[in-house]
Amino acid sequence: MSRSTKRAAPKPIIFETTRRVEFRDTDAAGIMHFSAFFNYMEQIEHEFLRNLGMSVLSADEEGAISWPRVSASCDYRGAVQFEDVLDVEMQIVRRGEKSVTYGFMFTHKKRPVAQGQLTAVCCRLDAKAPPRSIPIPDWIVAKFEGRDKGKKRR
Question: Which domains are seen in the chain, by residue range?
Answer without folding.
Answer: 14-144 (3.10.129.10)
